[in-house]
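From: lab user (bench 3)
To: helpdesk
Subject: output format question, protein + xanthosine-5'-monophosphate

Hello, I'm new to running complex predictions and I'm not sure whether the block I got back is the full result or only part of it. Here's what I submitted:
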Amino acid sequence: MSAIHYKIKCIQLRIQREVGKNKAIVAVSGGIDSSVCAVLSAKAISKQLFPVFIRTGFTLDKEENQLLKLFNKFGINVKILSKEKEYFKKLKNIEDPNKRRYQFGKLSLELLKAYARDVGVNVLINGVNKNDKFVLNTSISYKKRAQDTKRVLGLKLVEPIAELYKNEIRGISKKIGLGEIAFKQHIPGPALAIRISGKITKEKLALLKQVNQLVDSRINNNYWQFFPFLLNEKLDNKFIVVLRAVVSKDGGLTAEVKYDPKLLNKIAKEILKSYTKVGRVLFDISPKPPITIEFM
Ligand code: XMP
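Helpdesk reply: Thanks, we reran it on our side. This is the complete output you should expect:
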């Protein structure tokens, strides 16, 4: 048995052992980790699994479409909870990034708890990975998040990929046929909710989504992350977009800026031409450490 098959087998056995005869929910976001968890859980415990996607309004439409296409291919039924209004209302006036992150996580847990109650489930399969444990510079350390999850949910937590690094999970995702999703860059849990400074308005969110979509369509897979961030400050009454492009082994301790002037020039020109509300495109040259990958 190859190393990767062995890892896949171990994950499935762990899910079977820890879920036992119970039913479990798994929240899918469109990212690699939760998709791997959901697909392997479906293989491991089939009818005992209840996958759920919470529509937060802070991801791109294409993420949702990709996800639904994938699950359709695997014959996995995903329950969609449309909660965009709830997330927007809760987050729009929170300018402090830590509070925003916290409230995003709390609302997600509350919604999952309500869904678990509805379907009579007492186990949550959670796609946390080893990289998440290294997100040291944010206020939400792995431990605190895990404690919060247990406290808020009151559900048994099963974390089948917690000992694996992102590159290992990416390898598994390719092996099990996750297609486009296997090549996606990491999207933080709160997604675009932590890529807008100041208050979140519908205008800012819609603009960031459009710019993000354009950036995504112009880049290749040679980056750990390449994304736009929308500043609160304006110049000549126009928005300022900052692009961040980094390479990293696992996002945890170090990340180097990857500077491709030709590509950046092309993307900046396209952004300015397509979105007249944007007046400037900047490029962030700060390495990690001392600066984090995300802006807030
Ligand atoms: P930082 O910004 O601390 O991020 O250098 C390191 C890696 O972690 C991701 N990240 C998050 N992922 N929820 C997540 O699921 C979060 O709140 C979060 N904050 C940062 C970040 O995108 C990077 O890959």
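A quick orientation on your result: The pocket of xanthosine-5'-monophosphate is lined by residues 101, 135, 137-138, 140, 186, 188-190, 225, 251, 288, 292-294 (CB under 6 Å). Let us know if anything else is unclear.
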